[in-house]
Amino acid sequence: MQYPAMMVPELQGELLDAARAADTSVRHVYDPFVGCGTTLAEAMIRGLDFAGKDINPLAVLACRVKAGPYFPAAIRRKTELLLDRMATDSRRTIDVSFPGREKWFDDSVAVGLSRIRRAVCGESARWARRFFWVAMVESVRLTSNSRTSTFKLHMRPQEELTGRRCCPQAVFCETLLRNIRHMEGQAHYLRDRGLLRRGHYTGAVDIQLGDSSQNLEGSPKQLDLLITSPPYGDNQTTVPYGQYSFLPLQWVDLGDIDAHADAALIANTHALDSHSLGGSLRGASDAATTLAEMSPAFRRMAVDLASASPNATKRLSAFCRDLHACLDPIVGQLKPGALMLWTVGSRRIANRQVPLERILIDMLEARGATHVASVPRHIPNKRMAVRNSIADTMRSETIVVLRNGGH
pLDDT, tens digit, for every residue of 67-97? Predict the structure, then answer.
């Protein structure tokens, strides 16, 4: 399943290894912006416990499937039954309705996706349905009328749509069989290392759907290591996770992802992005004073932006306000002296580069953390355009290393 702005597995693995070399007691890893679970997967192959959180139901789906269980033989048997249900379904009803359905899906494609959806819903085991939904997500992405060259919803050109023929069932089958092979390989890898017991990962994995400004529910408050990469700016002008997720989530049963998944987050194409960091400008100006007192880097940037455009400072304040709101819950769940590894990028507002690294350091130092190091990293291969409609996109990141207070 494709997911926007995925972290590099090898890099996350090296960061985990470096942190464990510095602190051999590391057992429980936390990622409050877990995305599609790259850090989760790297933690699992090292036998570590993991807690992750994300506001995006699509990210939570991907992570919960990665966490297991790993039953390759059972999923192959269930796949045969699912394909039989799909092949014998001749109904031409379209099972979902949402704003823009006719725009984004030709009727023939919608009929095919509905047959897949009914076949998945016919599976009794939720763990298997989740596995099938991941293949469904990719099938929606590849058969919709939205371009696959961008994470934003963007119609394919009319000349491409004219005469275009898609078979969602064929795409689904191909994707599903590929994913089964991935499960088999991962199960073999984990089993060889003694990390699977009766198909279940031997460590503890806790993936929660929700806003990271709220504490993890029922999780220990002495987590050993934070390793994460938050959004680098509001989704609308950086990576539109919500727009990207809108179409797939219309076809997936949200209750299978999480019992508390809120359908309001996918009510329209911008709902999820509006609920994410910096998604709402309301009250942003009021937060600027507090942020300026806490962070000299924010204060300098806000002054610089004041002359650029009426909205520039407000956009900066909205994002930093929401990031600031997440930090107390995040830091409060770490043990004293725990290492924090934040991978951040400095986006641009009004053609001025935002020093997010320095703003984040200021905010965390105000909470008693100690800045250990900042390691720049060039992004060699980006799955996004070099430039968007706002500005040049980011070509580098910084890994910011801090130690939690109380050590």
Answer: 999 999 999 999 999 999 999 999 999 999 9
pLDDT of 380: 64
Burial class (CB in 10 A: 0-12, 13-18, 19+), 114: buried
Residue 43's CB: how many other CB atoms inside 10 A? 27
Distance CA 241, CA 33 (A): 12
Cα–Cα distance list, 196 to 45, 47, 185, 191 (Å):
10, 10, 13, 5
Orientation angle between helical segments 296-306 and 284-294, nearest 10 degrees? 130
Q: Pairing mode, if any, of strands 223-228 and 334-344?
A: parallel
**C-alpha span between 292 and 282 (Å, rounded):** 18
Report the alpha-carbon distance of residue 226 to residue 403 in Å, rounded. 10
Name residue, tokens 């990293």.
Answer: 377
What CA–CA distance (Å, rounded) separates 246 from 258? 16
Say what the pLDDT of residue 383 is: 47
Q: Tell me, what's the pLDDT at 271?
A: 94
**pLDDT band per the 50, 70, 90 thresholds, residue 221:** low
Helices 126-143 and 72-87 cross at an angle (nearest 10°) of 60
- C-alpha neighbours within 13 Å on the C-beta side of residue 111: 11
- With beta carbons less than 8 A apart as the criterion, state whether 44 and 175 touch: no
Phi, psi of 187 (to 5 degrees): -60, -45
pLDDT tens for 152-203 read 999 999 999 998 999 999 999 999 999 999 999 999 999 999 999 999 999 9
SS3 of residue 277 by DSSP: coil
Residue 366's pLDDT band (boundaries 50, 70, 90)?
very high
Give the global pTM. Answer: 0.94
> How much is the pLDDT for 386?
41
Show Cβ contacts of residue 212 under 8 Å, excluding neighbours closer than 6 positions.
32, 33, 53, 54, 55, 326, 329, 330
